[in-house]
Write a structure and sequence with these properties.
Layout lengths: L8 H9 L7 H4 L8 E3 L2 E3 L8 E3 L3 E3 L6 E4 L8 E5 L5 E5 L6 E6 L4 E6 L5 E5 L7 E5 L9 E4 L4 E8 L5 E7 L8 E6 L8 E4 L5 E8 L5 E7 L2 E7 L9 E3 L10 E6 L5 E5 L4 E5 L12 E3 L5 E6 L5 E6 L3 E6 L5 E6 L7 E5 L5
Antiparallel strand pairs: 1-4, 2-3, 5-8, 6-7, 6-29, 7-8, 9-10, 10-11, 11-12, 13-14, 14-15, 15-16, 17-18, 18-19, 19-20, 21-22, 22-23, 23-24, 25-26, 26-27, 27-28
Amino acid sequence: MFFTGHYSLRRRVTQRTHATNGTSRRTFLLVMASTTLAVPIFFTGVGPQMGAKAAVPSFEFGPRTVPASRSVPGIASKPLLFVSNGTDRVDIFLQAGKNKLVGHITGLSKPAGMTTDAAGNLYVTNYGAQGAQAVPVYAPPYNSGPYLTLSTPVGYLPYAVAVSRKGVVAVAIVCTDGSCSIESFVSFFAKGSTTPCATISLANPPVMPYSVAFDHTGNLFLVGQIGSGPYMSEISGGCSATTVKPLTAGNSDSLGGLFAVGVNQSNQVAVLDTDHGYLCTYNHPKHGSFGNPVYTTTGLDGAVDLAFTASGRDLFAIINSRSVSEIDYPSGVLDKTFNLPSGGGDDLAVTPALVP
């Protein structure tokens, strides 16, 4: 099995919106890059071979394109909002006032997930055309090409990304054609490294990983879809990780499509249910379960992604891929909304980031 379908609101919106010359995103997922280097790695997975190392066909890494960027001088000292259009660029806005557009990162190919670290570096999962499937990292003030590029295997799609307090990077990756023996996995990168220090296979049947987030102590939380239902899991250990722990919640039976996960100032895990338009905030899981939500933030109808501000008292959310709302957390009171430029929005990130 391999992933080319669009399983809920966010995927349906992007399939319809991001088409080029009649070719949808689904087609772009089938593009394979040319090969220059073969690197054998090992997986440690779940299921019948949980915790056991299993050899996998060598991953092949191809040449990388270098996107361009430009921004207004002096913006690096201001709170910023980054929004990818899912096609070819990331727009940079001021968080304050009327959310002035102050810069772009262009030349991208299907940017999907984004995150920032404590230094303000921006990580983008770039998964589209030949030679572009990688995770470029941009340093403030975002007016030059990436200073670092994390390698991901040819034929696989780097989808979601997160950075821990200690600088460990996690990238959730999925298969893009029928030749893959591993459908989805998470690769961890040590701070400053461009090659993985650990790679962990996700569950079988395959998981579509939509979002990842680290907590205070470096545990990684992942949400997505398995079959036709929601999926949540935890991976501990970073570069020493060995297994995936599937998670449930006290309200699991009522959850719909889970498209984003974040960690708040209190180290609680917030999960966006796009189908129902609310954000469930849970205490840390015990014995494989989050229990019932401690907060349920409503007013997020049509939300497809979110990011906490540095204060932890507000969050930004992309609504229906057309606008961005700033919302009080956890009350859900709307502060303001602004419309996005042509192309809409698929994912967002902020700086300074909330570092739980």
